[in-house]
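chain below, 352 aa
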Amino acid sequence: MTQHTPTAAGEPGRSQVEPLVVARGVKKYFPITRGLFRQQVGVVKAVDSVDIDIRPGETFALVGESGSGKTTLGKVLARLYEPTGGTILFDGQDITRLHEGELRRLRRQIQVVFQDPTSSLNPRRRVKEILEDPLVIHGFGDARQRAQRVQELLDLVELPREFLYRYPSHLSGGQKQRVGIARALALEPKFIVLDEPTSALDVSVQAKIVALLKRLQTQLGLTYLFITHDLSLVRNMADHVGVMYLGRLVEQGPARRIFERPEHPYTNALLSCIPTVDEEELALIPEKIPLTGETPSPARVPAGCPFHPRCPKVMDVCRHIPPSFVALDGNLRVSCHLHSEGDPGRGVPAAS
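prediction:
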């Protein structure tokens, strides 16, 4: 296989490891239609020209406010959505546009754990049937082998085997999510999209689910795309972080670098809102930066830098010219005019 040297989120020191997932210029637009004949009058740019590299065995976290496009991007990379544009490579194979049979084979390698375990599990089927379904669909072994695999899956997610005959309504939120994780593991995938896997759970349960996911990653060699708005989880979970705003990545790089020295004003604002009582962590968190106004609609993305209407460091250039990505120290890349080549008004706020 030809070695791929990443140009987006990669670290030069790790370029010998070919990414498992490579996204280049990925877009997902949803049409806006009106009238009796559903005439298209515009588009929602849910994901707009995103580049990502995710290496085997690592966790790449996507963070941002609700409506930033995180979940849509995850579904595009998992090929639950057809991309509007761009290219997606998985394990060296172009999966951007596959027919139904090819997508079915791809499902063995790429799985999704959804945000709400209650709505993602069929309430009329027992746990045994829920875990057996993907095995039957993909022709895994005979009945005895499938039964053995189902028991192995329960062991992996640390659930008692008597849960096999329970319905989802008889399980707690954390137990339901463990069943969802077990179902995702059924076909031994390489890549799992974790779409806010702890947001619907109690705080006391969240830590146990995160610990389970980390153990499974180490034990099974899994690669994760971890989608979340909770940056405190990212600190303990992620190797790399991508910060999304209005369908675009505005900053990406190693998690430690971003937490220690965020470069984009939006990233800084998100990090400043992390609640903590630990003095060491408190020292690392930037001073709280208020964000004015509401997030614009992705159907009406502002000209220039999409963040400029809310940015505390906005300059005149931000209102007219979209910033390009700039590589900084620590393998960080940021899309912000504060770091643009030529320093167009660096650090000089525009007049109100």
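The longest helix spans residues 203-220. The longest strand covers residues 39-54.
thats it, cya
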